Amino acid sequence: MNAPAPMALAGVRVVEMGQLIAGPFAGKTLGEFGADVVKIEPPGAGDPLRNWRLIKNGTSVWWQVQSRNKRSVAIDLRQPEGQQLARQLIAEADVLVENFRPGTLEGWGMSPDELHALNPGLVILRISGYGQTGPYRDLPGFGVIGEAMGGLRALTAEPGRVPVRVGVSIGDTLAALHGVIGVMMALYHRKVNGGAGQVIDVALHEAVFNVMESLIPEYSAFGAVREAAGSALPGIAPSNAYACTDGWVLVAGNGDSIFKRLMATIGRDDLGAAPDLADNAGRVARVAEIDAAIGDWTKPRTVQQVLDALATARVPAGKVYTAKDIAEDPHYRARDMILQQPTRDGYTVEVPGIVPKLSATPGTVRSNAPHVGDDTDAVLREMGLSAEQIATLRDKAIIQ
């Protein structure tokens, strides 16, 4: 039997105090690469994500992904004794993840200064709607608001129509991923520069804004306000979605040589050979004509017929996948991006695999998502509490 692969974050202890999406997604990512993630949940219902979207055997199937590789400790943080337990946990941790409204930790006597007095090496990841400073810091902010303020929502629409949601909580996830990057940089800095921790301040709207490409430089240099463009890629041609008899296909024919191969494939060598279409600027000027030509070719064909023809011509193209398409796709399976994961609710569910893929220290699913407070006793015993002390805390409803 092969020895288990080493874990990149083995030995790193994370205390997760967030709930729902942004903070817990950061904790999930750290846990998949070996961190020991101890999730503090309120007694009773626990993290509200447990009851979001589709429920099976009493628990959201989303929870099974978001909370794998975590241990659940149910502590009532509204009570001073619960706050003291949290401080004891954090005193021995490497990382604290929280996504409460700014000021919540401070109200519990757990400001960064107070926590660093207990644990100078602590890395504190704080994710919030607007950040820990600035005139909006105290406003409530969810991911959708961050997407709007960050500039994304204005672009996710057909021209002249209502801005729409991307379809997933992309603002929360982008904030979480930026937070994980910050945690890794802070841990590295701590390792090579004397052991001091620091605070990572991630605002939802700033994480979205950070991926908005040329939005602000174009406004600064030209006064250009980028508008919604539907499925097209503004300023790049041709790159769009085109209707087929049984769905939609995305075609990216915007490279100079790729464009010529695409036009040959659709029987429009006249466009492929046109001198003014030899570069992107010329194609952008005639994008409506080019899109119409591609659409006329795809319309009487199936998605698979289009994909086969464009693959032969080495033109990038892809189907618009649904959940069913993903679950049945052999490439996803070949790269372990669909995993069979047992649950503590008595069934097995297919879940997304782990990204990124590291060659020497790959991520793994080591444990399934816990019930509320499954690990309370074990974690408190690790902290040195006796069975009698744990029983007393449970009798007082400090823990579950």
Question: Can you give a write-up of this model?
Answer:
- The protein has 18 helices and 13 strands.
- It has a six-stranded parallel β-sheet with strand order 5-2-1-6-7-8, with helices on both faces. Strands 9-10-11 form a three-stranded antiparallel β-sheet, covered by helices on one side.
- The protein has two domains: 262 residues, Crotonobetainyl-coa:carnitine coa-transferase, domain 1 (Rossmann fold, 3-Layer(aba) Sandwich); 83 residues, formyl-coa transferase, domain 3 (2-Layer Sandwich), CATH 3.30.1540.10.
- The longest helix has 23 residues.
- Strand 1, helix 1 and strand 2 form a beta-alpha-beta unit.
- It is α/β, with parallel strands linked by helices and 400 residues long.
